[in-house]
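ESCALATION

Customer reports they have been waiting on this structure for their group meeting. Please prioritize. Original submission:
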Amino acid sequence: MRYKNPSRYLTKTHSGFTLIELLVVISIAAIIMAIAVPSFNQMVGQQRVKAAANDFKSAVALARSEARKTGLNSNIRQIGETSKTSKTSKTPKDPDDIKKEKSWGKMSDGWHVFNKPNGSKGTVDISLVRQLDASRIKLKGDAKGLVLAGKTGRINEDESKKICFKDANNNSDIPAYTVYINKAGSATVKESASCPT
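Update from on-call: job pushed to the front of the queue and completed.
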C-alpha cells in the first residue's frame, strides 16, 4: 500500500505493509497450517505402515530367491532371543526353537531372513535384518514364522499365509496392509480398513 504524506513540503511516497495487513496474512497462514497438519500426519502414518508391508513382501521374495539359489530352506523369523544366545542379544529364531513359542507376537520388533545349512547347530547365514519401530506398527499373523523350501521356494505348509500390518495407535483413518503369501512362495500386498480375521 502506498502512502503519500499529506504535508505539502514532503512529497515523497512510502511503500510497505501496515501492521494490520501483516497480522491478517499471518492469521490466514496459521489457519491453513491448522487444517493441513492433521492430514499430513495421517499421510505419514499410512506411508509408514505401507512401507513396512512392502518391506516384508520384499523379504519374502528374498527368502524365496535364497531358497532357490542355495537349495537350503530359507526362514523368516522375528528378531528375538534364542536358547543359544544371551537374553539381551537380538538374533534370528532358530527353526528348532520355533515350536516352543509364538513368534509373530513379537514380530513388531522386526524380522530376519536367514538360512541354516542342513545338520549345522547354531550356524545361520543372515541375508537381511529389518527392524521396525514397535511403537508405531503392529503385526498380526500366524503363530509361526515362514519357511520356504530349498530348490523350489515354496512354503513348507499346506496353506497360504497372511501377515497384517496396522498402525500401533489404532488410528482408524490409517488403513491396514495385509501381505498374502501363497503356497508357491509369492507375496502380494492388499489394503483394507482393518486386519482380516
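Sent to customer with the following note: Residues 22 and 185 are 61 Å apart (CA to CA).
Escalation resolved.
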